[in-house]
Amino acid sequence: MPNLLAARTLMALSLGFHIVFAAIGMAMPVLMVLAEARWRRHRDPIDKLLAQRWAKGTAILFAIGAVSGTALSFELGLLWPTFMRHAGPLVGMPFSLEGFAFFLEAIFLGLYLYGRDRLGPRAHLFACAMVAVCGMASGALVIAANAWMNTPQGFDARIGGVLHSIQSPEDWPVGARLAAAEVVEIRPWQAMFNPAFLTQAGHMLVAALAAVALAVAGVHAAMLRRDPENGFHRRALQLTLPLALAGAVAMPVTGDLAAKHLAKHQPLKLAAMEAHFHTERGAGLLVGGLPDAETRATTGALHLPKLLSILAFADPDAEVRGLDAFDRDQWPPLAVTHLAFDLMVGCGMAMLLVTALGWWLARRETLWRRPGLLRVLAWSAPLGFVAIEAGWTVTEVGRQPWIIRGMMRTAEAVTPMPHRGVPLLAFVVLYAVLGAVCAALLRYHVFHSPTTAQLAAGEADHA
Amino acid sequence: MLDAAALPALPTVFGALITVALWVYALTAGADFGGGVWDLLARGPRKDAQRQVIARAIGPIWEANHVWLILVVVLLFVAFPPAFAAILTALHVPLVAMLMGITLRGAAFVFRSYGPATGPWQRWGTVFAVSSTVTPILLGVVLGAVSSGALQLGPDLTVQTDFVSEWLAPFPWALGVMVLALFAWLAAVYLCVAADDPDLQDDFRRRAVAANLVFGAAAGVAALASIQGAPHRFQVRFGSARAWLMQAVTALVALLAVAALLRRLFRLARALAVVQVTLVVAAWVVAQDGQLLVGQLGLAQAAAPASILAPVAVALALGSLLLVPAFAWLYRLQARH
What is the ipTM of this complex? Predict the structure, then answer.
């Protein structure tokens, strides 16, 4: 396997693995806060039990996230030393702040997990809320750094003896290389609040909430099918489905903002996502199909007239730049970007449908009597995570061949270390084992959740 | 108005911050690793009780302690990017091995803690213990290679490396054993304080003394290895009366800590052990001779522009205002166990 491909594969694997745990670390505390707050208000022991059980799962998954995140922070330098050497200080502010956010998240999770009987009730709830806040902040800050790679700005650089002030990504002289430039001045806040930051972070945080809430709902739905009277699982669905629905509704809204950002700032990525070859007014949207860079056509796609212009610019006759507006050597891999995008959107739509239906029936207390729908919910559990993985594939593969768009190519950034296939294989095995063991451990705990009989006997606390 | 010239230079501030983060990492996460070593070496009639004390001491805090290492990495690439790129390129192999150790260890610890209390899940305890033992050695190898002066930079500050010779040498590995023994020593002393049963305290007391002996021996071997393997370092560490005085003070503190242990003055022993680790870290800083890569790259030469260092320093100061009380709260909660 070529060295560059091995490095990219390992990075993708590590990110793809970590992102599952990162999303859980952001969203599970929100669910725990909901359960804890309800327990305070109604003093229903089921809520307390739910918070305890969710906390157990969160503790397991957070630990895996903490170590896989550590691996990632090293891998940035192990795999892309040239990137970090030139960009490290430029993304320094979000990464430094992220360090603190993650610190606080870990500390407050420790306080929450071990403080149940040792802290006052308000301090305990506060610790839980802080885990949620810090987890979200930490996620948003990492995304600020990633967004900078998409829309880099916020520094002055001397390029071939001439000083350029990069106030926006467009200020970078076309063809110049960051590795050959001298960065003389950094504006950390302008770099951090780059054009892609808010839309990307908003979309990801919402996606994490929706994905995790639906996954948890799916697990409880599966258990409810075995034990339909179980108040524990019913309450879990009542708490998770509203959040899952809210997230599923917010996903297309934030996604639309992200698309409009792309149309303005990263038109090539949008064109690749949509397999949009030819610049035109009133551009149609292609769903599915296989884009072919040679023939510059997409075969087998469903064509929806004018929709792309509407999505990109809120105007049915707006001109949308196609791939033909850019040099061929700048195109990202088209098929992967386009199909991953469609997969993400497809999952998002399915989530909207499932969560809306589930929420409505749970509100009317009739969901429990519909085993078919419970089964659908259970099978929908992974949808949000599939959408997240697909979405990150879109933004990462869609940025290729650049690691910093327009400034540094991925091939320039890669480590000279030979035999990159060896660590790749080692990490594949490691992550496969950890993933499988983690799943088995969660399964064990799910199957040891309280039964109706135990709840009735008040034994669940000791179960 | 503050006189800018009177303030320490920003690169020095960041050099100090990285050192402080490493120091706290050694004192906290280091002891968590050491706990794993004693889990691996748990023996005798109180084997299970030993493991329980260790697990209770690590349980609520290891993830938070662990973040200091992430802070070291972040500070290094924000403040000294050429050094970061050079280290992560040349020491790729031991670093990847260390990462696998960190990952396996953290995962194995939760698998054991949250898995069924009996049966095959408890075998993750072995994985936890073995990886807790291997990882500090690799950390020491990396630190040893960095301070040996073996990393060679080209004219554009790009590292010239064969990816092996920098770390596959006696000196880095002697330092690896030193780090392992130091972490094990620290853990055993902390565990003497944490254990409330006198027999258990005796178990950990014996282990502590043994670990500190190994540490002393490894330090001697490292010193010998540095004559060839890290000549600049040897010069700084043994070339002056002041350097010898520092060695003598460290040795004295180590002996006093052992004496305190033998007299069952566990809290005093803990304080002395912390001083000992502090002196060891200080000696490492002195041996770095104000440079990132000895003989190759100075702090100022590698530093990022002041326009990023100053705001990050302010952000770190403000962040500490949240971090310190939060940590204090967590440690107080843990002490009430």
Answer: 0.90
Q: What is the mean pLDDT of residues B257-274?
A: 95
Chain A residue nearest residue B64, CA to CA: A106
Q: Sorting pLDDT into bands at 50, 70 and 90, what band is B159? A: confident
Neighbours of A246 (CB within 10 A): 16
Q: Which two tokens stand for residue A80?
A: 């892309």
* Separation between Cα atoms, residue B7 and residue B250, nearest integer Å: 30
Token pair listed for A377 = 């919910």
Task: Kindly report, residue by residue over A114-161, the tens digit of the pLDDT.
Answer: 888 888 889 999 999 999 999 999 999 999 999 999 999 999 999 988
**pTM value > 0.90:** yes
Query: Any residues with CB less than 8 A from the CB of A272 and at least 6 apart, and which?
Result: A323, A331, A332, A334, A337, A338, A398
Q: Is B307 close to A186, i.e. CB distance below 8 A?
A: yes
pLDDT of residue B291: 86
Tokens of A179: 């590795």
pLDDT at B5: 57
Alpha carbon of A90 to those of A183, A193, A205, A424, B63: distances in Å? 9, 12, 23, 28, 28
Close Cβ partners of B265 (under 8 Å, ≥ 6 residues apart) = none
What pLDDT, on a 0 to 100 scale, did the predictor assign at position B7? 61
Distance CA B54, CA B214 (A): 21
Give the model's pLDDT for residue B158: 87
- State which amino acid sits at residue A380: S
Taking Cα atoms as reference points, which of B207, B173, B176, B281 lies closest to residue B37?
B207
Strand ranges, E, within A300-366: 302-304, 319-320
| Closest to A211 (Cα-Cα) out of A253, A254, A240 | A240
pLDDT-derived band at A463 (thresholds 50, 70, 90) equals very low
Answer whether A106 sits within 8 Å of B329, measured CB to CB.
no
Give CA separation, B5 vs A185, B13, B306, B315, in Å: 20, 14, 14, 21
Q: What is the pLDDT of residue B61?
A: 83
B323–A contact, CB cutoff 8 A: yes
* Cβ neighbours around B156 below 10 Å, total: 7
Is pLDDT at B296 greater than 90 in this prediction?
no
- The string of DSSP codes covering A350-367 is HHHHHHHHHHHHHHTT-G
Of B66, B92, B99, nearest to A66 by CB-CB distance is B66
CB A93 within 8 A of CB B308: yes
Helices B29-40, B10-27: crossing angle, 10 deg rounding: 30
Q: What does the alpha-carbon distance between residue B112 and residue B55 come to, in Å, rounded to a whole number?
A: 10
Q: Do the Cβ atoms of A67 and B107 come within 8 Å? A: yes
CB contacts of A106 in chain B (<8 Å) are 63-64, 66-67
Which residue is closest to A415 within chain B, CA to CA?
Answer: B89
- Peptide bond preceding A45: is omega within 30 degrees of 0, i.e. cis? no
Domain definitions of chain A by residue range: 3-152+194-462, 154-188
Report the amino acid identity of residue A238. Q
Helix, strand, coil abundance in chain B, percent, nearest 5? 80, 5, 20
B118 lies within 8 A of chain A by CB: no
Other beta carbons within 10 angstroms of residue A284's beta carbon come to 18
Which residues are A164's β-sheet partners? A157
Does residue A406 sit in helix, strand or coil?
Answer: coil
| Length, in residues, of chain B | 337
Q: What is the tens place of the pLDDT at every residue in A257-296? A: 999 999 999 999 999 999 999 999 999 999 998 999 999 9
φ, ψ of residue A173 to 5 degrees: the values are -65, 130
